[in-house]
Amino acid sequence: MRRLLILVSSIVFLDTLLFGALIPLIPGFADEYDLTKLQAGLLVGAFGGGALLGGIPGGLIAGRVGPKRAVVAGLAVLALASFGFALAGSAAALGAARFAQGFSSTLTWSGALAWISIESPRSRRGEMIGNVLGVAVLGAILGPMLGAAARVTSIRATFVAVGFVAAALAAAAAAHPRARAERALPGALARALADRAFVAGLWLSTLPALMFGVLDVLAPLALDARGLGAVAIGVVFLTAGLAEVGLNPVIGRFSDRRGRLLPIRVALSASVIVAALLAVATQPLVIAALVAAASVSFGGFFTPGMALVSDRAELAGLTQGLAFGVMNTAWAVGALVGPSAGGALAGWSGDALPYLLCSALCGGTLLVIARRQGRAATTA
Prior knowledge:
Helix content is 87%, strand content 0%.
């Protein structure tokens, strides 16, 4: 189990490393290619677009051929996409490479999360998913440092090296024993989508992806406008994610013992406040501190939300690969809409409006959860 955990964690680490590497490169690309905030948002959102297109197909592939083969195929596509990003000479080419990276992530994430969920005891599923997500967050926070280093040294050489690492991980996954076979029951997907708890888990993947998409576009541009360079912006996002790395396994264990909803309610409550404060922050140190707070509060949804999706999929007779494929699609909607709509709204009315809308979405979700829990208690 330890070897599988290391392998799966390494795969998602590389994926999120690439996802975050673009953050400190955005101001430079915006200057080099004369991008508006909307265009910068579309470049960031291209990853989500690829994940949206490939989410359900990636899950179907993982369910049909097994998590191992899905992971190997996804890593092969990721290697090619990294080489393409290294050789890109225009904003359109960069966007196409990011789109391909997003598409590859549907295979790697569906396969990797299904693999670890199938092999884990249900009583420790939240903890194991939390361990994987903790490493994924580490990749996300080291990604900006990779991007900063690439800007200072060579973008081409950096992403060529990443492509070779992806190829090496594909070889390691191919040599690992495959997961236990799953039995898919007829009509399982329809039953899962009719399950409110399953759908709630999907929304708890969409919502933080949307908010992180807004943050990842607006915060670097705001910090850059206030005099911070690519390295300093990378340090801000590195510092912001350090607490989240250790927090995800803790949240996972807590949700295994106390239920999935309690940590979700806490994260929603904190996110309402943090997003509202981001709307009014103007000082660079304040923005940097709020980026750190957002990293913890926004990221607090992911582990219990994913565990909830896995639990309800198992009850519905849905394969874990397809369940996480559907979840990837839900995440991709947020990852695409967040930066694109956030950049467009910020270009039209300023940064405050996108952040306030994020705060309102968290508040509305919290109210819906509280109302449904109240009804359940009354019925009981």
